[in-house]
Amino acid sequence: MSNTSAKRAPKRDPDPRLTHAFDEARISGGEDLSLWDTELEEVPKQVWSFKNLKSLDLGSNRLRSVPQSLAELGHLKSVILVNNPIEHLPNLPGLMLDDATLFRLRSQIDRSNVTGLVVSGEIHGLNKGDWLSEIHSLRNLQELTIGDWALSIGEKHPTPTKSELLLIDSLSDFPSLETLSIRGRSMPPPNITRGTLET
Amino acid sequence: MKLKTLDLSGLALATLPSWLAKLNLEDLSAVDNQLTADAVNSSLEGYQGLKVLNLGWNPLGEIPQCIFEMRGLRRVGLPICNITKIPPDILRLTQLERLDLSGNQIESPPQEVVSKGLGAILRYWRQRESVGVDYLCEAKLIIVGEPGAGKTSLAQKIRNPEYKLKEREPSTEGIDVIGWQFPAVSRKAETSATSLSERDSQVNIWDFGGQEIYQATHQFFLTRRSVYLLVCDDRKEDTDFEYWLNTVELLSDGSPLLIVQNEKQDRTRDVNLSQLRAKFPASLIGALALNLDTNRGLDAALSRIRSELERLPHIGVGLPASWKRVREALEKDPRDYIDLSEYLDICQKHGFSRREDKLQLSDYLHDLGICLHFQNDPVLKNTVILKPTWGTAAVYRVIDDAKIIAARGKFSKRDLSRIWSEPKYANMTTELLHLMMKFQLCYALDDGETFIAPQLLSPDPPPYKWDSSAETVVRYQYDFLPKGILTRLIVATNHLVAEGSLVWKTGVVLEKDASRAEVIQDYGQRRITVRVTAQARSAFSRSLMIISRSCTVPSRACAMTAIFRVPASSVVPSRILTLSHWQICKKWRQRANQFNATKAAKWSIAPNSFATSCLESCSEPTDPNRYVPRPRPKFSSPMLGMMKAMQSLTGCKKPWTEWACEAFATKPICAIKIPSTTSCNESGAAKRLSW
Q1: Which of A24, B377, B545, B551 is most buried by its number of CB atoms within 10 A?
Q2: Distance from B255 to chain A by nearest Cα, in Å?
Q3: Which of A92, A125, A153 is the last residue of a domain?
């Protein structure tokens, strides 16, 4: 499939963003490769040339599947797959997913492989309890990023106080959690950087 | 509980949650909330174990005291927190590696120290704690205006109202500096009014030659933290107020400017002050009318000038007492320049012990424009120039030399020894030549014996061929095009000049591998046009960047940079982009927004997260205009060559490469705008060129 699409597409330079990302990873020792938001439809084959790769960021692309052969990279510890229309997941440890993917694939997923979760949108049809238990089933979860509103699903006016309460209740349920991000929806005042900076 | 990293960003928190105390965190971020210093103190008092703390974008008002008790801290991020002081308690954080205070207007320690980074701040406080504090009352009054407007007469009258005007004051060549003392009546937060009232303010009056040839070098001499006087002659209609106001506003970082109407014949010419004021609200603070023949209006003018000088932000800022003593010793020294070793001895005599402290002081004096010491130049680093005019006079003499003008700016070392034959210059020709290059007034040809001063080049382009079938054109429309941009570009990129000779006064053709770029300035149209062709595939053609920007041009007046790429394998149809200032601003903003959107999408959370990676890019306090979160701080090898060219051109290393990388990561052609570099430490190179 990759071959045919390559033939059909007009010949052009490799995407400079990719070239740039590979150069950058090589310079920094080849352990960390970020292909974030590079409009990928498949994992580029150069990835396998990074034998020491530990962390691979494939977030915000158009990946529908990720090949099992990534397992050949023996040092790989973490694969970020956030924000992709993924239909099929490899059986690899160290996956970082978003909530939509988790719920879409929850019948086929090996939950012990999921070490990172980004909770983005409201999950329709699930109540707070279901949502929490779904996350609780990720017993290897190390990194959780979550909006304050997601912590208080069902509440009309999510406030920091409420999320504090929920959080403190549930923190002890994540024994392996190392990194927790609670992020608000609030935009910084539009000119916060430029306005303040130019005076 | 393994939780080590907690990020509570954009939650509008007014206090930190109480359950923090139960956690054993190493890394805490609470960016973009509503925290005050008190709130932080009460929630984090006694909290130990943190290594990384980021509280950027909070209305802290000061650095919370509790931070100084967290002895394990390695990185602290406090960008845009309304902080004005870095207290000596910072010395207690012995593990500290990085401190980000960008976007704060720090007043103590002085900006020149803060901009040098954490190490400089620590050295400043260590010295000040050990030798006590003293105050430097020294300011700069800069007089500009058209030739013959009466600048020199005014300078003399300021110093001595009884000065007899000469029938014909000779034109000032280059710059004259004269001293003026008056008793200071000072205020200032850090000092009580009485402690300063006893001492004299030392003011150096800088009198600029108005001739056009000198104007191209003004960017080196019009410094911030100065008071400006724009002198206009009432009999003439020739003063281009907008040009001067633009120039001063651009280069001086909002220093105050007074218009002085020199009424040579008691006739008042109307200056549309309110209109000018509306246009330059930051710098234009008023107009004075006076008659230098009769001294009418002089007293009022003098008292106004004094009060503006006293209001300059650096007057009365505390310094380590030893700094002040060295400054006084240097001032009394009659010599024009001294060896570095002598300078170090003088410091030693006045209570310095460490070499790094001594060099920090010369750097500070350099930044203030008191001395010149180019520490990073292999030749000039061994000389401390005590009287900057000694250097400038020598340098201007070369540009004014009839023989060199006739030779269209080409000169040799023999010419220099002829021009600098007097004893005060003769032994220093190598240093002076380097000084000229530092000022970007000339460059050496490959033989190392011949030099070109691009200001004096022929105005007509030499004949050359240009293949316009595969060109990309970017045209920059400036709101205001300062003088000297192109000549500085030529000096900075001289090693790329095609055939070594395709260069003239208003344009240049650059060549690298098989790519060529033509840069032409049209001063009347306020336009710079860049055309690029790339015939072969190469690192350069893949990423050809041309910069038509000079480093001291801050954002307000559309300092801009084009970074663009020619996709080599596909022939680019001739394409013309005309980018006006606001278009470029808009593009830049869009890019910033895109960036935020993607970054936010990365965490699939709404784009609050300017600060997502604040600490990733956490840097020593540098450019308050720096747009803080930067992904991709590294760059790839093919770009290195051009990066270097850009760096040397702009003198602005870190932010530059980051911006460049970001630009590279996106569309084939883009022009991005660079925020002001006036107070950026990397632009220190630029600052260092100025005094």
Answers
A1: B551
A2: 12
A3: A92
